[in-house]
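Q: What would this chain look like folded?
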Amino acid sequence: MISLEWTELAEKQKNQIVDYIALDNVAVAVDMDILIENSAESLLAQPEKARPGRVPGTREFVFHEHYTLIYKYSFEDRLISILNALHTSREWPQVP
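A: My prediction, written as structure tokens:
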């Protein structure tokens, strides 16, 4: 069985997305929170369904026209690690 985990950064980014949307519309924010969670969980059935990421070893799952999940899948550990959740307008990978 494949497991799913969220990094601290990814959890923080997801919450920021939902909080930002909630400033305008709480119901839409709740729907987005559900969409993000369901999208991440959908990776359990097809962990390699997203395109290869710009950072080696990652994948990028565009689950909404404006939002992407960045994750790693370890076949050996049977683990999907959500690394980041971000708006498509944000720079990724971040350049120092």
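The domain at 3-87 is CATH 3.30.2310.20 (YaeB-like fold).
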